[in-house]
Amino acid sequence: MGCSSSTAQGSPPATGAQPERPVAVDAAVPDGSTQAEAPRPWGLDRDGLAQVVIEGASARLREVQPDLDLARLPELVAHPDTAPALSGRACDQLTDLAVVALAQGRLDEAAGLVRLVRAKARNRNLAFVGSTLLSEVARRQAGADEAAQERAIEGVLAELPRARFGGATVVFQLIQTRAQVDARLAQVSAQLRSQDTARAALYYREILPEIVAHRPRFLAAVERVRAAQAAQPAQAAYPFGTVDLTGNRGAREVRVAVWDLGTNPALFEGQLFNNPREQANGRDDDGNGQVDDLHGIVADGSAANTALLYEPGAETLSQYGNFLRGVMDLRAGLSTSEAAQQVLALQRGITTPEAQETLDNGLDAVGEWAHGTHVAGILLQGIPQARLAIFRSAWAGEHRPYHHRGPSDAELDQERQNIDAIAAFINRHNIRVVNASLGFTLEYVEDELRHESAQYHNDDEVRARARVIQARRRENWQSIFRACPSTLFVVSAGNSNQDVVEYGVVPGGVAAPNVLSVGAVDRYGQWATFTNSNPEQVQIFDHGVEVDSVIPNGSRLPLSGTSMASPNAANLAAKVLSLAPQLAPAQVIALMVASGDPIAAPFNGRIANETRAIEYLRTRPASYRVAPARAPARR
Predict the structure, then answer these.
(1) 3-class SS at 253?
(2) Torsion, CA 149, CA 152, CA 154, CA 155, rounded to 10
(3) Which range, of 103-107, 160-164, 380-384, 627-631, averages the lowest pLDDT?
(4) Which H/E stretch holds residue 550?
(5) What is d(CA 275, CA 266) in angstroms, rounded to the nearest whole number?
(6) Helix (H, G, I), strand (E, B), or coil: what is residue 435?
(7) Neighbours of 564 (CB within 10 A)
(8) Among 248, 289, 372, 411, which has the highest number of CB atoms less than 10 A from its own CB?
(9) How far is it, in rounded angstroms, from Cα 596 to Cα 364?
């Protein structure tokens, strides 16, 4: 999902003077207790893990950026201006090497690698990468004096723009005890050894324990920078204009759909699409192979979950439901909110990998429960003419059906059958706009496959299988785009801070005339820290940080992600088609791009502008114009 595990769960945040070795990892934790040496994943010590990462990163760098001469890397680190522009994947590998350098105590090298990425990354969101690494480098270089350490950390954090500060400093709030770190290390150690898992192990074994041991220094620096930022003039909020079609006599019915993990139809009864040839009677009344597809289609491998809304169970909702807001606040960098502090208190209790797994599963289940309903509420806002169909595909989130494993070929066949059924429903019932706040990355699939150590013997086998899965899914999505040429598919770009084309994000990176991939901006109209992008594929951005909408229990909650930006853009597309149903999907996209507000350099793209887009329908070329509304017939 655009804000779920299948698009955006990344590795630990990337964060370089001597001493030659990092400080011992059995240092005191904040409460004064000590803990034994962390376990050695796969039997490797620090230098063994480092060698796995170095060999993998070097090989991948040659593959993804052949114009980067590795023999010149020390020179490029010293003089970043002489380096070529860096692709996202090259930045990933250089950041991995920075983790190695810091773990081995080569502080100047670690800092230089991060600075190189910040200076030369094509993706300008990466200009703020590595704050955790740089902060730890600065602390170690400052010596033993605590006040000097705080000042050094503060100097690094003060480089961040205000809009980037919260997200870059969440790690100092989130990871609070050595037990939390060890639990995460144990989780990584259960996976197949690879460059990625070795880098994560290095981070959890050699870097995070030191940050936890000196956490008061980091928190003090964070508070001083935050106070300095608060003393500055308030930033002006971006004027996200909205258009309300309530009472608009020229607006016509437009059928839309939310394709997600589940949506509560009870909250949208007045706007639900009703299949006129189907009844809720346990039979396939319209003969299309689907039973009770009155309001949409459900695909779930669990016989207990056949409703349009996924229900995780009363116990799970009771235990974890109240933490949904806090999780989303932390993802958006709002670590000081009351809701975020509740989640942090929950995290403090984690002492084992089993407890971490239970917590992760519970929070993911609550997210799956809430996600589609929240998206639907955004999509329908201000457009009473819309009629909502619901497509629920459990596999679209992956966490529940494919937990710590990949889909089998038979399951991929079932995914295709579900997609074909949805395509038929769309065409039969003239669904004009489909919002799909979901997505898959190759890296996510690889990470899940590495849990299947009995199935795969090495990482080459894992990566080969992941490419097969990703290719199947790309073809699945291409097939529905081809099958439904009159339908506009609005999809979330994803939350991995990646280029959707370079990383092959599906469906956000799949180009088609009827696909609009949407990135997220924050309340100030700036790229969200997490948003995926691409100059050609992601041309439209919309509000995706703390977006208010409804969740299945009827309460309202602000959530964040490109999952929220996508339905904001789909909402505008539906309004355009309600007023101008003759427009083809490509024309709607062209209108939204032409009427959008350009995002200031060094970023790119346009922010959807509802007011101007609707105005363009009247003032731009004939293909955008709306026939005059008919006067009501006299009785």
Answers:
(1) coil
(2) 180
(3) 627-631
(4) strand 547-550
(5) 16
(6) strand
(7) 30
(8) 372
(9) 34
DSSP state of 265: G
- Largest separation between any pair of C-alpha atoms in the chain: 91
pLDDT digits (tens, 9 = 90+) for 432-455: 999 999 999 999 999 999 999 899
Kindly report, residue by residue over 576-599, the tens digit of the pLDDT.
999 999 999 999 999 999 999 999
Question: What is the residue extent of each domain of the chain?
Answer: 5-230, 254-316+361-624
* Residue labelled with tokens 């608009």: 248
Euclidean distance between CA atoms 473 and 438, whole angstroms: 12
Q: What is the model's pLDDT at position 292? A: 81
> What global pTM score does this model have?
0.90
CATH 1.10.10.10 fits 254-316+361-624, yes or no: no
For residue range 124-141, list pLDDT tens digits in order. 999 999 999 999 999 999
Q: What are phi and psi of 532, to 5 degrees?
A: -75, 165
**How far is it, in rounded angstroms, from Cα 519 to Cα 529?**
11
Whether a cis peptide bond, with omega within 30° of 0, leads into 19 is: yes
Task: Please return the burial class of 614, using the count of CB atoms within 10 Å of its CB with bins 0-12, 13-18 and 19+.
Answer: buried
Per the CB < 8 A criterion, the answer to whether 560 and 332 are in contact is: yes
DSSP assignment letter at 458: S
The helix/strand/coil state of 354 is helix
Alpha helices by DSSP H, 158-301 = 162-174, 178-189, 195-202, 208-213, 215-230
pLDDT tens by residue, 44-59: 999 999 999 999 999 9
Contacts for 172 with CB less than 8 Å, ≥ 6 apart: 132, 211, 215, 218, 219, 222
Q: How many residues does the chain have?
A: 635
Over its C-alpha atoms, the chain yields an Rg (Å, rounded) of 25
114 membership: H or E segment, kind and range: helix 107-120
DSSP collapsed to 3 states, 65-80 = CCCCCHHHHHHHHHCH
Helix-helix angle 162-174:146-157, to 10 degrees: 140
Judge whether 188 and 261 are in contact, CB under 8 Å: no
Cβ(511)–Cβ(490) below 8 Å? no
Query: Residue 81 burial by CB count (10 A; 0-12/13-18/19+): exposed, middle or buried?
Result: exposed
Give the pLDDT of residue 428: 96
Rounded Cα–Cα distance for residues 453 and 450 (Å): 6
Q: Is the peptide bond before 66 cis (omega within 30 degrees of 0)?
A: no
Q: Which residue carries 């996600």 as its tokens? A: 371
Which helix or strand (DSSP H or E) is residue 612 part of?
helix 610-619
CA distance 499 to 458: 27
d(CA 541, CA 605): 7
C-alpha count within 13 angstroms, C-beta hemisphere, residue 37: 7
Higher per-residue confidence, 610 vs 18: 610
Please state, in angstroms and rounded to a whole number, the distance separating the CA atoms of residues 554 and 556.
7
CA 514 to the chain's CA centroid:
23
Q: Residue 188 — very low, low, confident or very high, per pLDDT cuts 50/70/90?
A: very high
